[in-house]
Amino acid sequence: YGLRDAVWSAFKAKIVHPEYHGRAHIDVEGWMQALRDGEPTAMACLELGVTCGKGISNEYAGHIKRDLRPWIQKGVEAFHAEWGYFPATTVPPNNAGVCAIGEVWRRLGLMGADCRRVRNFSYGLKQGETKCNELNEDGLQAMERSEEMDLYLWKTLMASDEEIRAKVDKEVGRPGDRFVLLSIHTQNFVSSTYHPKLREWYQHALRLVLQHIQSYEDVIFLTSSELHQVRARGWSVEVW
Question: Coil, strand, or helix at residue 161?
Fold first, then answer.
């Protein structure tokens, strides 16, 4: 609830604008079945307070096209109940899903995706990964996130300010790029489950990234929904 309150506060201040991510990062039924079976890895993960286990797959792995829509629809309805508006864009947990998901998103009213395609794989079994068609082919506005920027903040802990600025220049400040889609895992910056020093560093890195981008000429920050609308038709509206 501390995280929920923080996000609501930022939403009311028009700092963040939530969009749809998913109902879970894992196949919930597969996870529960592993616990019921006493699968050793899953039980060890439970003791650590995390959701993992041998062969546990992504959220959509256990779904086929027939039952995918009702599953996602419940998530979209829960989103509406919480925020008071329906989501316009999405990105699945770990960019993973099944190849029919783009059509389902579109039929449920979503217009954009913060990834070009979804990957079909299971946790720990990436050798079986397959790539689906691009989501643009399903009638969605689809744009790739700046994965390197995202991973940089994750993996290069305690990097110097100069290193961070150089990375931003490389990933964001390339001449000719009209649109740049940034991705940050918000929980890492506000969650009380993180060590205070680590959380402090993440927040510092985020501030530095945004301040450096602001130093470029003619920069305008948009929400995910606005970005996809502007790309599609040249103008946007947003619900607050």
Answer: helix
Q: How many CB atoms lie within 10 A of CB 225?
A: 22
| Residue of 207, 238, 205, 235 whose CA lies nearest to 223 | 238
CB contact set of 170 (below 8 Å; sequence gap of 6+): none
Helix axis angle, 147-155 to 196-214, nearest 10° = 140
Residue 142 pairs in a beta bridge with 113
Q: Tell me the residue ranges of DSSP E strands in the chain.
A: 89-90, 112-113, 119-120, 130-131, 141-142
Per the CB < 8 A criterion, the answer to whether 199 and 191 are in contact is: yes
**What's the whole-model pTM score?**
0.78
Q: Which tens digits make up the pLDDT trace of 169-202?
A: 887 776 566 788 877 665 555 566 667 777 787 7
At 215, list the tokens: 């130093």
Degrees (nearest 5) of the Cα angle 136, 137, 143?
A: 15
Confidence of residue 123 (pLDDT cuts 50, 70, 90): very low
Closest of 120, 118, 144, 126 to residue 227, by C-alpha: 144
Give the integer Cα–Cα distance in Å for 26 and 134. 23
Q: Rg for the chain (alpha carbons), in Å? A: 19
Measure the CA–CA gap between 35 and 40, rounded to whole angstroms.
9
Report CA 57 to chain centroid distance, whole Å: 17
Helix (H) or strand (E) holding 117: none
State the sign of the Cα–Cα–Cα–Cα dihedral 191, 195, 197, 201: negative
Q: How far apart are CA 221 and CA 158, in angstroms?
A: 26
Amino acid (one-letter) located at 132: C
Residue 135 CA to residue 185 CA, distance in Å, equals 22
